[in-house]
Design goal:
By secondary structure, the protein is an all-beta fold. It is built from no helices and 17 strands. Strand 3 (33-35) and strand 4 (40-45) form a beta hairpin. The chain is rod-shaped. It starts with a strand and ends with a strand. The mean pLDDT is 95.
Length: 193
């Protein structure tokens, strides 16, 4: 009867259109647009779906066609703090400009890419944006997650240490970008001698 063609087979965060080119005229199929002049069926999918449709020609003969749209991903990457390593081993809840702090970060997403925009990561001490040193280390892409260490040095301000991952810090293969995510470290920066 016909084969299914898809507007894309790549991972996407957009709709996917399925088109079935037919070899002969058919009866209408519920949920599908039948374009008689081109002898095609079309349907737009907003989310992943698998279905079998029955196509009847005008003589009443039936054929079954399977349609599988499994490449739509609209899930945004999720950023989490997995571990803190503070060089101040005497009091790990307190940091200062003499001790580096390494935050182990995990980005969860089925289709994550190995890409992080360091310029979109802000470090706050209290309500003040810090000019401390920032360095990404140990970036690893594993199944459904990206892990990396964010090394902070020379933190001169005073107050609670927070990390702000702004919009578009990371992106998945479908084009979904993270939304602004604030992570509180529960570390107090104290540079008072």
């Amino acid at each position: 009867v016909g084969e299914v063609e898809y507007s894309t087979k790549e991972i996407t965060n957009k709709e996917v259109e399925a088109t079935i080119k037919l070899s002969e005229p058919i009866e209408e199929v519920e949920g599908w647009e039948y374009i008689k002049e081109n002898n095609i069926l079309k349907k737009t999918y907003k989310e992943n779906a698998s279905e079998s449709i029955v196509i009847k020609d005008l003589a009443g003969n039936e054929n079954q066609i399977n349609v599988d749209v499994l490449n739509i991903d609209k899930t945004l990457p999720k950023i989490e703090l997995s571990k803190i390593n503070n060089a101040n081993t005497l009091d790990p809840k307190v940091g200062n400009k003499l001790h580096e702090i390494v935050l182990s970060i995990k980005i969860l997403d089925d289709n994550i890419q190995k890409q992080v925009d360091l310029k979109k990561i802000d470090v706050f001490v209290g309500d003040v944006k810090s000019n401390c040193g920032k360095l990404l280390k140990n970036i690893k892409l594993q199944e459904k997650q990206l892990t990396f260490d964010l090394k902070l040095t020379d933190i001169e301000e005073e107050g609670e240490l927070k990390i702000m991952f702004n919009d578009n810090t990371c992106k998945d293969k479908a084009g979904n970008e993270n939304k602004k995510t604030e992570i509180n470290t529960d570390i107090k920066i104290n540079n008072t001698p």
